[in-house]
Design a protein that fits this description.
The chain is α/β, with parallel strands linked by helices. It is about 30% helix and about 15% strand.
């Protein structure tokens, strides 16, 4: 695809002209200019989790967990390519104005392909959910979209956080994640291996925590033996931000900053997000690192810069204009993603609403007119936000439907005004619900309530959740609305498993991006059928789960949890019904006839699960294939579903992947378990292979 050998040769030649001090200076994320060699300053830190982030105006797509709910590889790559185009456009314009600040480069620290193993983890909404295969496929396609297929990298993607990283946030700087060989090979490492080998991701970011005793950003096992020697990774490794300083400050595996810098560099961490590599020359003078090790890291970093075409004025992406940011086309793509990501959890027939029947609608709740409820975290700033209220109001205005609005309550405090009594908006909410034909309750969380440890946006320091409930203020509101509303539709904006019992119909909207309100209105009124599916298990209570700090997969995720779940992984309702027939194996794919039996056009998300005849197989069948295809009402289409090439393998207790001779595939619209089948109403087709 690209000439890495040529880039390495150019990088080696350029680095060979540097002094040792200059080489060392380039190993920090905010690399200074070297004017005598014509090297401009470069800040390696940029974020594009679901759009160009933290650098002004950009298209804001649904949060990563919402993108995962689409179960759509092609859409994933298209969105990533669009994001990369905006990143290039902003880079081109800003660098011409000599703005080379943080969040404005072309090395983008996305995607987050950690496994969302526990619903308490505040950063789980940055991931693609709990399944290693889904995470792998979506991660691969996101990276391919970001990096492009041209002569140069469109942007340089980054798989993070390597590895075994999913909370707790409060102790991540000193925590030791202990994982056995089976869980490492079966759950925690596959997505990283896939993005290295198949997507050729240009960089990998280490994690804050230790993994089986070694700090991840200085782990010989992870960075040298696994990433480079076993998987053949050729790009560069970057530390998580200030993670290297944790070596001596928190993990206590070293005593000084120079020792920490040396441990990270020697084990393959090329770039330091933080300031510990300011001590690299001290480490050199103390004999802790060699010039060769510093040179190797520097060459890897400049190889990436050459692969990006940063030293070629004729780079194919240099002509992308700033007007390619925030376009109508990108907004339309964000809308399509929001439509495809929302999950219909329950429906007693209330939805879709008939605009010819509904004359008055009440929109109530702290997330109704909230921009943060659209954004998630690691987000850019859109010029086109459509909140849930604005989207519904716009639709209703066109159909002569009266809209009543009340905040209802604060997102988490017991009152909206400091001088008022508690529950100061409850009465207003009740009186509007009484008057309306249908009440839309917009509740849930935002990135101030679930997110990253120490993030400036967090209301609570750690960002993790203590339970699966929405805040008490909202629970009180929903209780009142359940009593007074003629029909109650509960719309939940959040990025993780929640248990919200109230509602005649429920939609899980995730953090749906800039067009979330338009998408919601279209789904509420049946202009679009909901088609998202859950990329993670929704549990009843955290007490059903192991301790948060226990990294064993036993009783975690749909593959190993044996209790009753609230909503299963892979679940999602539509405004239509389906039947499947004629499943057959065709080389590396399964073909199946999918019939839309209802009256609504809808995308079908067909899922394939595999059970291997082996004592080493997971407790329940695991996802090994999926495909999204549009099917018109009353029509039948053939779904072609690529299979995981590892479908007929299992991982034993020693962490070895071995082949099995007998497997059974289940092809349906959900998992093949009894509860999933009952809830979605579609019996999967079975296919046995010996």
């Amino acid at each position: 695809m690209r000439n890495r050998e040529e880039a390495v040769a150019k990088a080696t030649e350029l680095v060979g002209k540097m002094t040792l001090e200059e080489k060392a200076s380039q190993l920090k994320y905010d690399a200074p200019a070297i004017p005598r060699l014509g090297i401009p300053a470069y800040n390696w830190w940029n974020e594009v989790l679901h759009g160009v982030a933290r650098a002004g105006t950009a298209t804001v797509f649904p949060q990563a967990i919402g993108l995962a709910a689409m179960f759509d590889e092609n859409m994933q790559e298209k969105i990533a390519s669009t994001i990369a185009g905006e990143a290039r456009a902003k880079y081109n314009g800003q660098s011409k104005h000599n703005d080379r600040d943080i969040y404005k480069g072309l090395t983008v620290w996305s995607p987050n392909i950690n496994i969302f193993r526990d619903p308490r983890w505040g950063r789980g909404h940055e991931t693609y959910g709990e399944d290693p295969y889904l995470t792998s496929r979506l991660g691969i396609r996101f990276i391919k979209g970001l990096q492009g297929d041209g002569k140069y990298l469109k942007t340089a993607a980054c798989s993070k956080h390597f590895a075994v990283h999913s909370g707790p946030e409060a102790v991540r700087h000193q925590f030791n994640a202990v994982a056995n060989p089976k869980d490492m090979a079966e759950t925690y490492l596959p997505a990283f291996e896939a993005t290295v080998k198949e997507a050729e991701v240009e960089s990998v970011m280490g994690a804050y925590n230790r993994v089986n005793g070694e700090p991840a950003c200085g782990s010989e096992t992870l960075l040298k033996k696994t990433l480079r020697e076993k998987w053949g990774f050729q790009g560069h490794v970057v530390s998580d931000c200030w993670a290297v300083s944790d070596f001596h400050l928190n993990h206590k595996v070293t005593d000084t900053a120079p020792e920490s810098a040396a441990l990270a560099l020697k084990n393959g961490c090329d770039l330091n997000c933080g300031n510990t590599y300011l001590h690299m020359m001290e480490a050199y003078h103390e004999g802790l690192v060699t010039e060769e090790q510093i040179t190797t890291a520097c060459i890897r970093l400049f190889t990436t810069r050459y692969l990006l075409g940063l030293f070629d004025e004729n780079c194919e992406y240099n002509s992308i204009p700033v007007t390619d940011v925030d376009t109508d086309e990108n907004d339309a793509l964000a809308l399509k993603a929001a439509e495809n990501s929302m999950v219909l959890l329950e429906n007693d027939g209330t939805l879709p609403l008939d605009p010819n029947v509904v004359k008055t609608i009440a929109v109530i709740g702290p997330n109704a007119d909230s921009i943060p409820a659209l954004e998630g975290n690691y987000n850019g700033t859109s010029s086109r936000y459509v909140t849930f209220l604005r989207g519904i109001r716009s639709y209703c205005k066109a159909h002569n439907i009266r809209v009543l609005y009340s905040l209802g309550c604060h997102l988490f405090k017991d009152r909206t005004s400091g001088l008022a009594q508690a529950d100061d908006r409850i009465a207003e909410a009740a009186m509007y619900a009484e008057m309306a034909d249908v009440t839309i309750a917009c509740v849930g969380l935002d990135a101030g309530l679930e997110g990253e440890e120490g993030d400036t946006g967090n209301e609570y320091f750690s960002g993790d959740k203590n339970d699966l409930l929405i805040p008490e203020s909202q629970r009180k509101l929903l209780s009142v609305l359940q009593k007074y509303a003629k029909k109650l539709v509960t719309v939940i904006a959040a990025g993780s498993s929640l248990n919200v019992p109230e509602g005649d119909a429920k939609i899980f909207a995730w953090y749906p991006g800039q067009a979330g309100g338009t998408a919601l209105a279209e789904i509420l009124f049946g202009e679009v059928s909901p088609s998202g599916h859950l990329p993670l298990t929704f549990y009843h209570d955290v007490n059903d789960l192991p301790d948060f700090e226990d990294y064993r997969m036993n009783q975690r995720t749909y593959r190993y949890f044996t209790g009753d779940v609230l909503y299963p992984f892979g679940f999602g309702l539509n405004y239509t019904s389906w039947s499947l027939s004629g499943a057959r194996l065709d080389g590396p794919k399964i073909l199946v006839n999918v019939h839309n039996e209802g009256k609504s056009d809808c995308d079908a998300v067909v899922q394939v699960y595999v059970h291997c005849d082996s004592p080493d197989a997971p407790t329940f069948p695991r996802l090994c294939g999926f495909a999204r295809i549009p099917i018109a009402a009353g029509k039948t289409e053939v779904a072609e579903i690529p299979l995981d090439k590892l479908s007929a393998t299992v991982v034993n207790d020693q962490g070895e992947r071995v082949s099995v001779s007998r497997v059974k595939y289940y092809i349906g619209m959900s998992q093949p378990d009894e509860k999933s089948v009952r809830m979605c109403g579609v019996q999967p087709v079975e296919l046995e292979v010996n």
